[in-house]
UniProtKB/TrEMBL annotation:
This is Cyclomaltodextrinase. The keyword Hydrolase applies. GO terms for molecular function: hydrolase activity, hydrolyzing O-glycosyl compounds. It comes from the Bacteria. Residues 135-493 form the Glycosyl hydrolase family 13 catalytic domain. It comes from Paenibacillus darwinianus. Signal peptide: none annotated. SMART domains: Aamy (SM00642). Keywords: Glycosidase, Hydrolase.
Amino acid sequence: MLLECFHHATRSNWAYAYDEKTIHLRFRTKRDDVDEVYAITGDKYDWEAHYKELKMDKLASDHFFDYWEIGIRPMHKRFSYGFRIRAGNETVWMVESGISHEQPTPPGGYYEFPYIHPVDIFRAPEWAKEAVFYQIFPDRFANGDPSNDPEGSKEWGGQPEQGGFFGGDLKGVMDNLEYLTDLGINAIYFTPLFKSPSNHKYDTIDYMEIDPQFGTKDDLRRLVQECHKKGIRVVLDAVFNHSGVEFAPFQDVVRNGDNSKYKDWFHIHSFPVTVDENPANYDTFGFYGHMPKLNTANPEVKKYLLDVATYWLQEMDIDGWRLDVANEIDHRFWRDFRVAVKAIKPDAYIVGEVWSDSMLWLMGDQFDSVMNYPFADKTLSFFSNCDKDGYMFANEISRLLIRYPQQTNEVIFNLLCSHDTPRVLTMLGEDKRRLKLALVFLLTYIGTPCIFYGDEVGLRGGGDPDCRKCMEWDYDRQDRELYDFYKLIIALRKNYPMLRHGRFRFLKAEPGDCRVIYERLDDEMHFTVWMNNTTERTVLSHPMETNDWHDALSGQRVEVTDGAMNLELDELGYRIIYRKII
């Protein structure tokens, strides 16, 4: 055994309380190097009376390592533990004090989980596990009230430009709620609604007002009420990293310079402020001078922004916040933000925009979730062609799973595209078969899925602004077959709780093979998903211990012969098979 590959830590995603009675432990070994791992546990105050040896499951594997996991329910909400690792005839023990070929005398030197404190448990909103989100870019979804269109708005459906408007508004969303419920949507994420001169609204000039082109506060209040009546949650976008250059406090700094009472609201390098120069003499989002960065460590700024967050929760009864450029704001601000938001609505869903490993924000004291762009990257890279085989795909997805505790994985915000990326159909070469495979994976994977408006009717487009085309409302121009497929797979996810809560694991993913099989499993049901990511018909086989499987979409029985299931799959085809355990 390569002992130097062993890893465990008494923190974060390696040892954590999943709920008030259960602790999850994880352990890492070199890939295919170890036959079994046991957790050796006992109470540090009475080891012998509570001693147990518990076999760990291999949760996942990546290019280099195997990851083992077990859930433990200690009698007294505390325990000490170590690991026994076996490969062939060799057995070693690993505890906090080191690795040895003889079991160290417990409990001294063993790892400890001192106590499960309910206040320390990371609790994500339960409803987020049930949600299928729909992202709406308001200017481009539907124009319900032409009277509030910005001057110079273009005819609906024209080619988008960086600075153009099309007149989409809250009334347009209200008019199409039945469309969303028919599709199966039960949560909406809006890009910013607050007053701003742009079509995207990420350069806010008044955080306490709805932009007039979208409507009024009363319009938003009525929309949220109607959404709630239909079982739809509403999440708004908050841009707290930076404001727009027309934000009143920043304009005060422009006018009054060093004498402005707002000068410490921003990161000013020198006076006078030079708005039109590049680079600006103040910190900005990226290098965009029209988006000055806010100083969230300033107590006045913090109070202002926290008041904004709580105002919209209280006044409009929204269900959460998506936080723009969240990784560029200090952690102390986000800790205070969580306290303020959860005090108003304990089950509010807080989603940060972080494009990379986000563990620092997902310790239970800041966000509930992040936008899982790494998931989108790995998924689209695999389904766009067969350059990356199933082995590499499984390794990459498994590595993402190991990044976070289970309760985080259950609500992580999974997406295939957004307003910041090309359209998913475009990224997949406009091949609907590949889009269907990617959608099946999205909606049968662990986490909270999100669909970008219009993907379900075949909208195409490259990067900004092409990805922000107007929603197609002409029935004859919509891809209704694709719409029906989205509706079918969304319904499948909503009809089977196991697809929202069950364990995820790859069963078959081999080098040089673009076919994969994975499972979702809980105590009541077992799903397996079979995917042929090749352009040839194939027969995919895998051992099965029982013969009680059915096709999840057709209901037909699927036979097992001589202990194996052999499924014929169309080119770029799939099958979803399930069995009831109890």
